Amino acid sequence: MANPIPLSAPDITELEVRLVTQTLRSGRLSIGPRLEEFERLVGERVNRPHAVGVSSGTAGLHLALLALGIGPGDEVITPAFSFVASANCVLYVGAKPVFVDCDPRTLNMKLEDVEKAITEKTKAIIGVEVFGNPCGMLELAALAARYEIPLVEDAAEGLGGQKGPDPIGRFGRVAVFGFYPSKQITTGEGGMIVTHDDKLADLCRSMRNQGRAGPSYLTGAGLHAIPALEVIPGLGMGLGAALGSWLVHERVGYNFRLSEINAALGVAQMQRLNEIVEARERVAEAYTRRLMPNPNLIVPNISEDTRMSWFVYVVRLTDQFTSDDRDFILEGLRRHEVGASNYFPPIPLLPPYRKLFGFQPGDFPVAESVSQRTIALPFFNRLTEREIDLVCQTLEVMIQRITFAGR
Ligand SMILES: *Cc1c(COP(=O)(O)O)cnc(C)c1O
């Protein structure tokens, strides 16, 4: 029996180990030079003047909506077919998620349906590059601009991708990346908000850091100026000016900071981003070459002017298969120690959303049909040709078992 092939695996080299170790030895474990460097690298990569590191992509989405002033009584349009965080962030701020079904080809929100969902209460549109595919984002940005509704780009699956000349992360008024270990790059846990909007960036910086304000606390640079933190026990003489503002909280904020340890990991990963995107591209191309001819499968559809940054490699069974067939295939793959998964159940059909809004099967037919037939295959940078071959062989055998069973 061959070794198990996991669904996903982070790509950590000696560079990551070295930078994290240096940070551990530096004595500065939060709000310091690594965070600033990581922010600079991500901002430069996606051509944005502001980048704000946060503790997760989910926290980033939460802050982006707060900074846009969205709250109770507001509606936010968001995809039915996405990771649950794309909708949970709307609930966090007390607003109402308005779900839009997906286009069966790109799996991104269907543009006509977005337009139909707009009301005078719509205060933001959350656009997701599902599985890293930016198809339709330019058109979505144009639609949002036409209605003067801010587009929040949930770019958590797309770092490194491009549509024409535009990098993923450039489409929204604000965009958010996530760095969970399954993403293109990881910080263990972490996220990044990017924007052109000075005020939005300042608000996000303040709110990630307990509502502290004043320029010195908006960036890591501020804290360098306070070796005086060691002086805290001697506060009796009154707060020093700098130290004082550390204790001033202008608004109710959160602790959504990204530690220096996580940021050091992010710096190393950003230095390797091109290599990582290329490695994933190689794996995706090998899968597509092998699986495209199979009439039972729909492989990812990427338009001409798109440079994909592959998040996952997801194939879909054609419509003659049922969700039970898909589960049978997943089961078979796992039995052969091939890490495979379904991806994703439609968000409105998850228990909290059914309970809150009464959604039923049939409400989002495309998302539902797609999610019943998806199979995410093992996907990570170091997957070898031999492993890819083994995964595909096992998949083909499982599909044959169903088709030969006389259906
Ligand atoms: C991963 C992901 C997130 C959340 O990122 P975390 O860092 O895990 O909080 C948000 N939206 C989408 C579409 C994602 O895939």
Query: Could you say how many structural domains there are in total?
Result: 2
Fourth-tier CATH superfamily name of the largest domain = Type I PLP-dependent aspartate aminotransferase-like (Major domain)
Mean pLDDT: 92
Strand order of the largest sheet: 1-9-8-5-4-2-3
SSE sequence, one letter per element: HHEHEHEHEHEEEEEHHHHHHEEEHHHEH
Q: Which structural class best describes the helix and strand composition?
A: alpha/beta
CATH third-level topology of the largest domain: Aspartate Aminotransferase, domain 2
Principal-axes geometry comes out as: globular
Cα(first) to Cα(last) distance is: 31 Å
| Unreliable stretches covering 5 or more consecutive residues | 220-240
Number of strands: 13
CATH architectural type of the largest domain: 3-Layer(aba) Sandwich
Oligomeric status of the shown chains?
single chain
List keywords for this structure.
Aspartate Aminotransferase, domain 1; 16 helices; single chain; alpha/beta; 2 domains; three-stranded antiparallel beta sheet; seven-stranded mixed beta sheet; 407 residues; Aspartate Aminotransferase, domain 2; binds pyridoxal-5'-phosphate
